[in-house]
């Protein structure tokens, strides 16, 4: 699947002059454009909102948002291919690391906010809120996010389980129903272990959700509902950092939205959880 910038370059000579103004501006300022509305792009490029919409159709993209998603994917791939980025450096001061890591995580969260539209989030929230059972699937650091989902949703009375073992993942997916949700988490979207799991979940009739980085990947192609994350990860690092942070951010959105849908039930479930924990550990301490 071609990226947004490639599609623009390939079609630049045949599109109408009014569309070309917008196309040239996008090619010259891709990182800026992904943060612009249709009107803002039209104003800055000297075109019109209608021309921007026509441009998307002319290059075979279904809407301005999808064009921006493709461009974000292009920018992500450029960042990933610039070479080995070292997160760990000799003699880095703690003060510098505090600022640098805070800035990196903040940028990743803002970019993740940008590439996810409210409609897709709403669809995912609705599916989870109405699910009989939710199975979370992850491997490595992504499994920590799956466990976080299990812990959060379990406390508000949702039946959910996080799996990292390949056999357990497949067994659980095979026993899902049309009333259930299969939620796969992989930053690359290419984790081989998760591909047959999501295929099996679809075969079982479950609603499938994939949370991956922006851009084409096989896990997104399998999923009914697609959630995106944006992060730059160093090839030389101690562990997944920014990718885990933005995955947790998306999971927090899902949890908070679902909890708010059934507010009274949520408060009751949280109170039951609190009392059970408090009573148990107070008894043990006596």
UniProtKB/TrEMBL annotation:
Keywords of the record: DNA-binding, Transcription, Transcription regulation
Residue ranges of every copy of the SIS domain listed in the record: 124-264
Chaperone among keywords: no
Name of a matching Pfam family: SIS
Keyword Iron on entry: no
Entry's Gene Ontology molecular function annotations: carbohydrate derivative binding; DNA binding; DNA-binding transcription factor activity
SUPFAM superfamilies referenced in this protein's UniProt entry, alphabetically: Homeodomain-like (SSF46689), SIS domain (SSF53697)
GO BP terms, alphabetized: carbohydrate derivative metabolic process
PROSITE patterns: HTH_RPIR, SIS
Domain HTH rpiR-type: 2-78
Gene3D superfamilies, per the entry: Glucose-6-phosphate isomerase like protein, domain 1 (3.40.50.10490), Winged helix-like DNA-binding domain superfamily/Winged helix DNA-binding domain (1.10.10.10)
PANTHER family (alphabetical): GLUCOKINASE, MURR_RPIR FAMILY TRANSCRIPTIONAL REGULATOR
UniProt name for this protein: Transcriptional regulator, RpiR family
């Amino acid at each position: 699947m071609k990226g947004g910038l490639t599609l623009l370059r390939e079609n630049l000579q045949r599109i109408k002059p009014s569309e070309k103004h917008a196309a040239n501006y996008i090619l010259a300022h891709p990182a800026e454009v992904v943060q612009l509305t249709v009107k803002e792009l039209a104003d800055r490029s000297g075109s019109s909102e209608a021309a921007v919409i026509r441009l998307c159709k002319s290059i075979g993209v279904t809407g301005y948002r999808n064009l921006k998603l493709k461009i974000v994917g292009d920018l992500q791939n450029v960042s990933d291919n610039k070479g080995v980025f070292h997160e760990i450096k000799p003699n880095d001061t703690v003060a510098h690391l505090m600022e640098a890591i805070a800035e990196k995580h903040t940028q990743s969260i803002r970019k993740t906010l940008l590439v996810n539209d409210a409609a897709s989030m709403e669809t995912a929230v609705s599916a989870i809120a109405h699910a009989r059972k939710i199975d979370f699937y992850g491997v490595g650091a992504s499994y920590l996010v799956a466990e976080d989902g299990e812990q959060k949703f379990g406390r508000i009375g949702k039946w959910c389980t996080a799996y990292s073992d390949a056999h357990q993942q497949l067994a659980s997916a095979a026993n899902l129903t049309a009333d259930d949700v299969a939620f796969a988490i992989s930053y690359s979207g290419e984790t081989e272990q998760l591909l047959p799991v999501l295929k099996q979940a679809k075969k079982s009739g479950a609603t499938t959700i994939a949370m991956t980085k922006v851009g084409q990947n096989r896990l997104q192609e399998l999923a009914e509902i697609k959630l995106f994350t944006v992060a730059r990860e160093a090839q030389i690092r101690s562990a997944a950092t920014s990718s885990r942070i933005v995955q947790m951010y998306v999971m927090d959105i899902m949890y908070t939205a679902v909890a708010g849908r059934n507010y009274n039930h949520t408060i009751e479930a949280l109170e039951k959880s609190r009392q059970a924990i408090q009573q148990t550990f107070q008894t043990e301490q006596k």
